[in-house]
Amino acid sequence: MKIHIFYRHFNIEGNDFKGRPKWFNFEKCFLNLLSTIKDKNVDLHVVMDGDVYSNFIDKYKEHYTLHSIKAGNDQSSFFQTWDIVKNLNIPNTDLIYFLENDYLHVDDWVEIVTNLFETYQGLHYVSLYDHNDKYFLPMYENLTSKIFTTSKHHWRTTPSTCGSFIISKDIFEEDFIDHTTIVGDHNKFLQLTQTKNRFVLTPIPGLSTHCMEGLLSPTINWQQINS
Fold first, then answer.
1. Widest Cα–Cα separation across the chain
2. CATH code (residue 52)
3. Residue 28 belongs to what domain range?
4. Which of 8, 195, 209, 211 sits most deeply, having the most CB atoms within 10 A of its CB?
5. What DSSP letter does each residue of 35-86 carry, written as one string?
6. CA 93 vs CA 110, 158, 201: distances in Å
7. pLDDT (mean) for 60-71
8. By C-alpha distance, which of 189, 197, 216, 213 is closest to 205?
9. pLDDT tens digits for 174-224?
10. 155 burial level (CB within 10 Å; 0-12, 13-18, 19+)
11. Contact call for residues 108 and 35 (beta carbons, < 8 A)
């Protein structure tokens, strides 16, 4: 079971300070990813919106397959990434990981995710981000989750996730139209739940974090992982 990562990036470096922790850095996120997948059964693709040659990511080109697009915004790059995947011959037994460029990961996430998909059949969406807002926003005060366990980790159901998640080839094909027509992550997952009974699993504790101040996956020192 190989994991095929499609890492969406554009010509940006450093910290854009859009609600980020002070220590956040795009290049460090990418280096963190490379370190966590080294010598593992993972295939990395970079979907680059714009000129790769004037960006830090070109320094690491031996580690990935490059796909160049001209999107200009996040939604368009997401749609185009799905088109790229559709035209690749990914085996039915493998997993597809759509990943944004502002996430950090813990070291053993590959083994834990593989263990999850080997333990349970028919999973829909798996995010590695333990959404911190689920613990304090009033809209989630009465949120009920089903807990799943494996020999390595705990997982919970959650209503939605961001644009970074792992799916099987079957789910990719079945939900292709939904993901390339519906705008807005939260609305999309609510509709998938209502129309197709899809569910999202997230880990406890998180295996990754979206690097937004106040929304980091709890209980983990992400600044230390970033250093």
1. 48
2. 3.90.550.10
3. 3-226
4. 209
5. HHHTTSSEEEEEEEES-GGGSGGGGGGGGSEEEEE---SHHHHHHHHHHHHH
6. 16, 25, 19
7. 96
8. 216
9. 999 999 998 877 789 989 999 999 999 999 999 999 999 999 999 999 999
10. buried
11. no
How many whole angstroms separate alpha carbon 91 and alpha carbon 28? 31
The residue whose two tokens read 């789910």 is 171
Residue with tokens 């390595």: 152
CA distance 164 to 162: 6
* Number of domains observed in the structure of the chain: 1
**Nearest C-alpha neighbor of 105 from the set 214, 2, 7:** 7
* pLDDT tens column, 4-53: 999 999 999 999 999 999 999 999 999 999 999 999 999 999 999 998 88
Burial category of 184 from C-beta neighbours within 10 Å (exposed 0-12, middle 13-18, buried 19 and up): exposed
Percent of the chain with pLDDT over 90: 91
- As a whole number of angstroms, the distance between CA 79 and CA 75 comes to 6
Q: Please name the amino acid found at residue 204.
A: I
